[in-house]
Design a protein that fits this description.
Largest sheet: 2 strands, antiparallel
Strand order of the largest sheet: 1-2
Order of helices and strands: HHHHEEHHHHHHH
Radius of gyration: 19 Å
Structural class: mainly alpha
Length: 295
């Protein structure tokens, strides 16, 4: 019986970690290219989650179109954030701290947009969006939403790896993440690469927003879940997408076990304390990549 309980927690943790991985990798993509902490990614996630909620609740669209709406919304909002909030700072060669402050401001602004439109109450995706909520495998109970999150995360990462390694735009993004100035000197349009980076980041943010919204309740503050992506990014090593994804999955499993043992109230405290301790021991994260010019 104890083994089954342990296995149940692992399954739940892997599924939650899969969503964290989507958030963290989308967050880390922008960091790798522009070298600043883009907390506005949480706002992109929140707007996307509510876009999916609108078409599911009011238009009664089925699951796949709802997810597609969230993904496309994430891409559009992410590009708008780059054009409105970050491009002028970059063109004026502003300090990295300006990017950071602006990203936090954009997160708060997008949250306020959701509060104005939907109020401060909690919302839920329609129950009919998933006709079967759970499946039973012997003594194990597997949530359909968790299983969906896990499967779609694997698909999303497979597509992302293909784009980054096999396509011209992906190779250009990787080059820009190593040295943006050198990339521009090679004749590559930096503006296009940055827009492409935000599009990919927004696609991941939109997917994670809808998946997290389906598995949990919606509120205008849903974008603050980006903090979990930030933690995973720091622990995994902000220069390594693979390290970030592994750290995010590990964080999800660890969080589920903590909630089951010490409760949801103390869990965030323990996670932050362990993050601080870990960074004192290994500041470059799991992947061994260290940056000194980040905000």
């Amino acid at each position: 019986m104890q083994v089954m309980v342990l296995l149940q927690q692992v399954i739940n943790g892997l599924s939650l970690g899969a969503v964290y991985a989507l958030i963290a990798v989308g967050y880390a993509l922008v960091f790798n290219v522009l070298k600043f902490s883009n907390f506005a990614h949480g706002g992109v996630l929140g707007i996307s989650a509510y876009a999916g909620y609108i078409v599911a609740n009011q238009l009664h669209w089925p699951l796949i179109p709802v997810i597609l709406v969230g993904i496309l919304t994430g891409a559009v909002v992410a590009v708008l954030v780059e054009l409105i909030a970050f491009r002028w700072i970059r063109l004026q060669k502003g300090q990295l701290v300006y990017f950071f402050v602006t990203s936090v401001t954009m997160l708060m602004a997008l949250e306020q947009v959701l509060i104005i439109r939907f109020g401060a109450s909690f919302e839920s995706f329609p129950y009919t969006l998933l006709k079967v909520k759970v499946i039973h495998l012997g003594e194990l109970t597997v949530s359909i939403t968790y299983l969906l999150s896990l499967v779609l995360t694997i698909i999303a990462f497979s597509v992302l790896l293909y784009i980054l390694k096999k396509t011209k735009i992906g190779i250009a993004i990787r080059a820009a993440s190593n040295d943006l100035v050198a990339t521009s000197l090679m004749g590559i349009n930096v503006d296009q690469i940055i827009v492409a980076t935000f599009i990919v980041s927004g696609l991941l943010g939109g997917l994670s927003g809808v998946l997290y919204g389906i598995s949990a309740s919606l509120s205008p503050q849903i974008g603050q879940i980006v903090i979990k992506g930030f933690i995973a990014s720091v622990l995994g090593g902000l220069g390594s997408l693979k390290g970030v994804a592994i750290a995010a999955v590990a964080l999800g499993v660890f969080e589920v076990f903590l909630v089951a043992t010490i409760g949801s109230g103390l869990t965030p405290v323990v996670i932050f304390l362990l993050m601080v301790i870990f960074l004192l021991v290994r500041p470059q994260g799991f992947a061994g990549v260290s940056f000194t010019d980040k905000a």
